[in-house]
Amino acid sequence: MAKGHRSTTSQRKESRKNEIQYIKELETRTQEFDLKNNKTNFFRDLPISNATLKGLQEASFIKLTEIQKDSIPVSLKGDDVLGAAKTGSGKTLAFLVPILEKLYRERWTEFDGLGALVISPTRELAMQIYEVLTKIGAHTTFSAGLVIGGKDVKFELERISRINILIGTPGRILQHMDQAVGLNTNNLQMLVLDEADRCLDMGFKKTLDAIVGNLPPSRQTLLFSATQSQSLADLARLSLTNYKTVGNSEAKNGTNGLENEISTPETLQQCYIEVELAEKLDTLFSFIKTHLKNKMIVFLSSSKQVHFVYETFRKLQPGISLMHLHGRQKQKARTETLDKFSRAQQVCLIATDVVARGIDFPAVDWVIQVDCPEDVDTYIHRVGRCARYGKEGKSLIMLTTQEQEGFLKRLKSKNIEPNKLTIKQSKKKSIRQQLQSLLFQDPELKYLGQKAFISYIRSIYIQKDKEVFKFDEIPTEEFANSLGLPGAPKIKIKGMKAIERAKTLKNSSRQLLSLSKVEDDGETLKEEPKKVRTKYDKMFERKNQTILSEHYMTVTKAAADENEDEDFMVIKRHGHQLDEKDLPELIAPTSRRAQRKALSKKASLSSKNNPSKMVFDDDGNAHPIYELEDEEDFEKRGSAQRQKKEFLSKESATMAEVDTEDKNLAKQKKQEKKRRQLELMRREMEASMAEEHSEDDNIGEPVAYVGTGHLSDDMDEDNYESDNDPHPRKRQRVDYKHDSESHTDTNDIIEVEEPQTLEDLESLTSRLISN
Length: 771
What we know:
Layout: H1 2-31, H2 50-58, H3 66-76, E1 80-84, H4 91-105, E2 116-119, H5 123-136, E3 144-147, H6 153-159, E4 165-168, H7 170-179, E5 190-194, H8 196-199, H9 205-213, E6 220-225, H10 232-237, E7 243-247, H11 248-253, E8 268-274, H12 280-289, E9 295-299, H13 303-316, E10 321-325, H14 331-343, E11 347-351, E12 366-369, H15 376-383, E13 393-399, H16 401-413, E14 419-420, H17 432-441, H18 443-461, H19 476-482, H20 496-506, H21 510-520, H22 522-527, H23 535-541, H24 547-561, H25 592-599, H26 601-607, E15 614-616, E16 622-624, H27 631-636, H28 640-695, H29 711-714, H30 758-770
Parallel strand pairs: 1-6, 1-7, 2-4, 2-5, 3-4, 5-6, 8-13, 8-14, 9-11, 9-12, 10-11, 12-13
Antiparallel strand pairs: 15-16
């Protein structure tokens, strides 16, 4: 046993020694790698470990892309990287491979704490990065974790202390830094910001500053995006001083600065059309109807618009599967939608910019931008959902007359010149009347339409580029009519400071906000006890759930503002005089007749004329239930006498056909009745003969053959008198003759004439019984 133990220990020492020697060889190859004459085209040519290389091969990652070829050798040398490349160029592997190699060369274990931190602006992008990491790191011994909003916080807190690579969104990462006891970031080796320009904007500024404040300054930092910001203030916040810029722009400019932004992929066909704001929904519906066998993404500016367009188009049924995705959905619904859309082939996804960055959807044919993006960077990220990894794709943006000149100028400054397309009027279909009909029938759809209208107007108001987005020139009435609304809703615009504050609160963690309030108002909270909130309080505090809740909040707020001493009816309008003579008399009726009239809805409407009820046809046009024809249309069809003759002749022919059918039906009923009677008599006759046969022991019992023995032959129409026969045959009495000569000892057979009527059959039956 002791010898075996010594052998195992020696083997472990030998394996550790070999591993250390192998790591030294990798470090030597990395330092000797020539960055200027970099001609590597495959992952196997890079100085990376066998475990990482095996995971890449099993995940079918063999050949390097441009950004991977330029950034991975620089990252392996330990330098900070500011990387920019076209959308769909493989930036995810450009920072995941250096993370695995860094931790492998440091011989990282679960007891060393957190080694790498990857921050993503959206949940969907974080989940995609985690899935790629699990594929290429299958043969490594590192633990990885995903922390995003919408998941169980307690489940993550229990396991986050044993995680080596942490991937998540800024709000949830900061929450774990404040709450998780076992999360140790003192030994962090690498910080990665995917879509760095989005992470560095105003929405995540405070959250990201708080995260960076908890990290050691000696780390390695990697920033990747399709569009990068070269702001010195942003880079200084991340402690980037001696960094290297990689990407296609470096080869073009020959410098370490990004003088020109990265353009879109060459395989992407970019187009634009000039459409008025009131015609955008008609154009979008017509486009979907003419591209039913494609996979497309439709981008709108707000979640309210996405919800409204999805619900209305779902009822109009364009002929293709519809999905929607926005930031206000539950995490489970967002994940299921992403999975379904990735596996589908012919589908339309209506979404906001929550899926505009970094998400890799396979085989997207079209990207349609109904609302103009806020800047060129957003445009580049949106169109980057198609034409990925060298595949072909198409994009279409709808620009109004006010937006066209300014936005095309900004696209041209980034070397992007989309082609102009014209709309075929024969293919275009208007859905305005159908939308009006839907909103008239469904109040919730009308409520969604109002919210979509308000959210779009506010999105235009908060845009910084006033040369492109002209708030004063928006045709509000026409836009409201295009949504099916009877008029433009009233809008209350907040100040820019309030909007920026709301944007900051939206991207921050709710629990962190509550903790900050406790720290700021700790003394007051200690003095005043916390109020207990029941489930009913939470229910009535919800907003934008249904129409009733919004109205309830308005009514209760108005009732709370009024004083109890005020009268029941208060005049809110001022500046005019009311004459008491003009006011109606509010006196209850005294007579019984007046009381019945007041209580009866029918009687009260008789004096005011009945209201005209409207119905909608298939095209969405409104018509009264009883609609009279115009005199001109009546005279176009001819004179009154002629129309009268035509009507009478037509009705006569119809009556003749109906009369014939009625006669045939009556005839069939009579025949059926006769069949039932005959069948009943035959059953009675057979029953009586069976009784006689059982009582009589004689062999030579007389037998009578009636008819042919087949009921269908016996009931032939020739055997009965026709109901329409003008000369009916006289009934003949049948003489029953008994031929004694034909009567033999062996067979007593009675020969009779075939009965023609029921009376003949009855007489035959009685004769047989008597014999």
